[in-house]
Structure formats: C-alpha cells, structure tokens
Amino acid sequence: MKPGAPPPRRRLPGPARLGVYAFLLCAAAFFLLPLYVMLVTSVKPMEEIRLGNLFALPVAVTIEPWAAAWSDACTGVACEGIRGGFWNSVAIVVPSTILPILFGALNGYTLAFWRPRGSATLFAILMLGAFIPVQVMMFPMVRILAGMGLFSSLPGIVLVHLVFSMPVMTLLFRNYYASIPQELFKAARVDGGGFLRIFVQLMLPMSTPMIIVAAIMQVTGVWNDYILGLVFAGRDNLPMTVQLNNVINTTTGERLYNVNMAATILTSLVPLAVYFVSGRWFVRGIAAGAVKG
Amino acid sequence: MGTKLNAIRRHAVSWTAMLPMAAIVIVAYLGTALWTLRISLSSSRTFPKDDFVGLAQYARLFANDRWMLSLENLALYGVLFIAAALVIGFLLAVFIDQKVAGEGVLRTVFLYPYAMSFVATGLAWQWMLNPEAGIQQAVRRMGYPEFRFDWIVDQDMVMYTIVIATVWQSSGLVMALMLAGLRGIDEEIWKAARIDGIPKWRVYASIVLPMLGPSVATVFMLLATAVVKLFDSVVAMTQGGPGTASEVPTKFIMDHLFGRANIALASAGSIVMLLTVLALVAPILYARSRARRPREAA
Fold first, then answer.
1. Interface pTM (ipTM) of the complex?
2. CATH class of segment(s) A83-290
3. pLDDT of B106-115, one tens digit each?
C-alpha cells in the first residue's frame, strides 16, 4: 500500500490530501467503533438489544444497567456488582504505585550516582528479568508467599506488583538520573550531603516529571492487571478486572449485555481517565520504558 | 583512619539501599526461575517432589496434543499480530505525519485502546463478534440475511478474531513510537528528496523506513513479548474455545499449574517459553548494547 500519489506541490488540497484524510478518518472510525458499541449497548434496555441491531442508537436511554453493574450484577453465587472489585483495585493500586516508585527512584539514584560494587551486574540481571514470562515465576512465588504468610492477601499482591514492576521503574529513574550532571551530585557531596539527604532533598524534588510518568504507568498497569490479581490477591481482594471477567463469563441464563458493557466501561474508567488527562505524558512513559531499554 | 572508616560507611549505606533490589533479583527472579527449572526436571504433580526424571517432562510436553496446538496457535497468532500491528501502526504514523489537522485528536483516538485492560477490550470484542448479537446479526438486519461473520465460534477462524482484537488494541502503541521516530528524522532529507523529484512514498520506503530501524526493533521487541504473554485476551474472548481451538501456551501452563495439578509439566512449558523469549530478545539487546558502546566512549 502506498500513501497516496506523490504530491507535486506541498499543501495543495489535491486528491492525495483527501486520500490522507479519508484513510485517517476510516481508521479513526474503526478504532472508535468498539467504544461506541460499548457505550450505546450499556444504555439500552434488553428489549432493544434483543432486536439485534448492534450499531443502532438507543431509543429509550436507561442508566439502569450501570446501576445494576455497579451494585447487583452476579458473580457465581454473590450478586453484589463490581463495586467491591473497584474498591479492591483502589486498595491494590495505591500502595502498588507508591512503593514501586519509591524503590525505583532509590535504585535509580544508587545506580546512577553511588554505583556500589556489583550493582551494575544486578541491574543487568534485573533488565533481563523484565522479559521473563510471569508463568516462569508463578509457582515458586506462590510457595514463597505462602511461606511468608502473605499468599492471598493485600500485602502479598502489593509485593508481587513491586517485584514485577521493579525492572521498568528502576530503568526509568536510572536513565533519568544518568542525564543529571555528575557535578551537581559532587557539589552536594562536598557540601556534606549524605546518601539519604541528597536523595530526599535534592534528587526527589528534581524527579517530579519522572514520578508523574511512573505513576501513570503504574496506575494503568496495575489497574489493568488480570493474571497477578487472579492468582495472588485472594478471594477477598480480587481486583476489578477479575470480577469483571467473572461477571461476564460465568453468568447463567440470559446474558445481560447492557449490564456487561456497563461493567466493562466502569472497569476501564480509571485508566481511561488517566489516559485522557495525562495526554502526552502517557506516551512519554511508553517511550521512556521502551526506547531506552 | 577516619577517611577509611568514612569510605566503608559510605559503601555500607549505598549497599543497604541496594538490598531490596538485590533480594528481588536473587530470590524473585533468579531463584524462582531456577526453582521452576528444577521442578521441570522432576515428576511433581500437586506438590513439588525431589526426584529427578531428566527431560521426561519435556518429552511428555512435546507429545501433548494440546501443547502442540497451543504452540501452533501462538506461532500463527504471533506472525499475524506482529505483521499487522507493525504495518497498521507505521501507516497511521506516516499519515499523521503529513501535517494533518486535528493531529492531537487522532493520536488520542488511536492510542486509547492501549490504556484499557485486555480483559475489558476482549469482552467488548467478544460481544461484537458474537454471531447472535453482534456484527453478523446487525448486518443481516440491514438487509443482507446471508451475511456470515461467525469466526469466534469457528474452530478454524477463532485465532484471527484474537488477532483483530489485539491489533486494534496495540497498533496505537506502534503508531506512537513510530511517530516519535519519524519526528526525529532530519528535515533536510525531505528537502533533498524534493529537489531531486523523488516521490514521497519512495522516500518513506527506501530512506525513512531503514532509518527507523532502531524504533522498529524496539516495537518488535515489545510486540514479541506481548505475543508470548498472550493470556488475558484469550480468557476474556474465547476461554480457549471453541473446544481447544484457541489454546495458547500461557493458558496451558496456568491450567496445569492450578486446575490440573501437574506442576512439573507446567514448569517445563514455562521454561520453554522463557527460552523462546530469550532467543527473541537476546540478539536485539546484544546489538543494542554494541551500538551504544562507541557512543558512550566518545
């Protein structure tokens, strides 16, 4: 496929230009289609859905499915909606954002400025660790956490998120601190700054952009996690994604598609809000995590 | 004397700061991988056993129809997913790079699926692809009663539906990274090409694309690791069905770890996955570290 015919002169709204816009608009429509379907389905009564017209706008708009999804959709025996999952996810995401950022910044700071013997090797192994499929680590981690009495608990799932996010968090901050001139660090040393003091009073305040990027990555990543929550969180802490899948893939009887779609949108609301608010920061996080690796 | 003591103390502090990372690297990464390797060489079922059966579990694994099917599925999926995501992502980036109006909106639209979880998008696609309620039914009601689009319940076609859903989700990411690469290319190239009268698409194909090599390698690495990790989307869209037609290795391993209580076989499977990932990623990482060295020396 070639991107239109060669334009003879630039900025002339010829057929090539129209072709560019036609392609982009078609692509945008394809990308928006699922969101559109989810939205219109979630506000239709079941009678309209049974008519089988996926794309039709709702005739009688109802927010009933949203209320049902939030507070009384069924997962197996319990019918309490996915609000429990929402609060579980919040409880998991908050510490799983703060702790990995703190440790990532500390690791990055130590690796970039103090470089204790052997730290470069540890870092190299950690970077390889980023590519290990979680299944390789799963069973031993279940055993280790069980031995520590943390399996199926909130601290357990937070620890698991800390482990799995450490490579990218450390990489982000190490690269960021590596771009700060060493002279600044040396001057702080001359002024008598110790390890912690330089970290807390000099480096952390300078790290705000990276902290924002890292927070965006952690909030969306942890919120969207399914497999770790499924295995490690335990029945009382199941995150929203797991409950969503339970609601939708275990229902018996008629499937309430409007409730299902409302639940799906509710589950996506937090990461989507983060994405729409953060805009280019979101892209920056992807690029920082990927390109410099 | 005092300075020496200070030096020791300084090292002690920075080493203490490294301890959590060292513990995680040694226990959680190296330790668990070795443990899984050890289990894969035993005859463990529900609980780990200390015996040693050599590569018997690996032999059993590759004689297992379900595992072989899941490997075939993953290979088919991987080739199609990476190719489609690369092509679509690159085209989107090139078209957006034509100084179009509304660039910000378009970028937001192309990337938003990537912010959602694979479970949520998988469920949305499951609903759209459902033959009784989704696209097939909608098109039939528009006056084409013969229209058929029931891939998700068709054993031969179901993997393609997972390709569609995940390409939809991931090509925005490719677009974002490629666009960053395109913006980094020297404007002079365009001026020179214009003076020489070279058509724009040829500049993209013959000059720009080769210059994007590092971006493509990065994107390839991201997509390839996503392929090996493929799990959430399958669980949400098909749960491995119809029958076992959309089984993938991660699901095979999870089922044998937790459902079928055959941890040795599951461990063998995960070691095979680990080796696959390393084989894919190691050459790229190696090439990158070699490419970086001279720059750091300079």
1. 0.89
2. mainly alpha
3. 999 999 999 9
